[in-house]
Design brief:
Length: 352
């Protein structure tokens, strides 16, 4: 069932660019989320180095952390050409990520899209010194959401399973493996950046990983910045190429055996990282089988599809994925379920 409202991917929220003069307007609205400043900073795509410096300088003062995050963001101290300029739509997305959907909807209602702007398009500021031209670009989302509590819950469970697999991976590798893991991931920068790969960005990524000193920080960086529930390839490929176990070795501990000799479940079994990722990919395959739809563009309100062509629609959890995310989402779709000749659109799933 389709629904429209303030949570509709926040496509109906004003995308006027905000600046440092808007600091108090933004801060006054979200001051209550100071304790959640870090997920808000991540949602605003602040640099991890900046987040670390903010945390170190604040000495545990979460209010100061949030204030500095907003100041840096409004001054565009992040990759705004990639993630978009500061605007109220981005504030709504960050507030929802920070755990307050009701406040996000309240802000969305207070800052509706300006008259004459089509919600199904976004405005991109032309690059170049002194350039102020606006370029309308098609949205990667269909202009409607669906409300399906069960589907929304399944997406949440998939993300929880993803996080659990990351935690098992952290425990799977001893610290001696860190140099090899860093060497592997920095040799496969394309799997992290995709179409946005440039020499400068690749160099920046290598610098980030070069400063990592623990296994937990290594996989934490991958999880927070370079992977998602559908962009699992950097992790799954790494596991395959850097497996710490031999497939032919004898089981040394009772916890290594999933089943006893009589095929009853072994209560002491501890699932290892490779198995966790194998099961995760199976879960994802099952989800794609039931959440991918080939449809007529008009049935989803799409007006910019090629004439006479259908579209392929995938249900997702959020309303702020970008073109690069769509690239990785399509890579995650099993070949037998994809239609490469059709344009892929995303449809946000709401719980209520």
């Amino acid at each position: 069932m389709a629904t429209k409202g303030p949570s509709e991917a926040f496509v109906s929220v004003c995308d006027r660019e905000l600046g440092i003069d808007d600091f108090y307007d933004v801060y006054d609205k979200i001051e209550s989320l100071s304790a959640r400043w870090k997920p808000i900073a991540i949602s605003l795509h602040m640099k991890l180095d900046t987040i670390s410096k903010i945390r170190a300088n604040a000495n545990g003062d979460t209010t100061a952390c949030l204030q500095e995050v907003l100041e840096c963001w409004l001054k565009k101290d992040y990759d705004y050409e990639r993630h978009g300029v500061p605007c109220w739509r981005r504030v709504c997305v960050a507030v929802k990520k920070g755990g307050d959907s009701a406040l996000a909807d309240e802000i969305a209602q207070e800052h509706p899209v300006t008259e004459g702007t089509t919600p199904h398009t976004r405005t991109t500021r032309a690059r170049g010194a002194g350039s102020t031209a606006s370029i309308p670009t098609p949205s990667i989302y269909v202009p409607k959401t669906i409300t399906n509590f069960e589907l929304h819950r399944e997406l949440s469970e998939i993300q929880e399973q993803f996080a659990e697999a990351v935690q098992k991976t952290i425990k799977y590798y001893p610290k001696e493996w860190l140099p090899d893991l860093i060497e592997y991931i920095t040799a496969h920068i394309t799997t992290l950046l995709g179409p946005e790969h440039t020499p400068d960005k690749a160099q920046a990524v290598r610098k980030e990983f070069k400063n990592i000193t623990t296994i937990a920080d290594f996989f934490g960086l991958l999880q927070d910045k370079y992977t998602s529930w559908f962009k699992h390839e950097p992790l799954t490929n790494l596991i395959v190429e850097n497996d710490t176990t031999c497939p032919y070795q004898d089981y040394e501990n009772e916890s290594d055996k999933e089943y006893n000799e009589d095929r009853t479940p072994n209560l002491y079994y501890v699932e290892k990282a490779p198995t966790s990722w194998y099961r995760y990919k199976e879960r994802l395959h099952s989800y794609f089988k039931k959440c991918i739809t080939v449809a007529d563009p008009a049935s989803y309100g799409i007006t910019d599809a090629p004439p006479g062509k259908q579209i392929i629609v995938v249900n997702v959890d959020r309303g702020d994925y970008n073109e690069n995310d769509r690239h990785f989402l399509r890579k995650a779709i099993p070949r037998e379920l994809d239609r490469p000749d059709l344009t892929l659109y995303l449809c946000q799933v709401l719980s209520n």
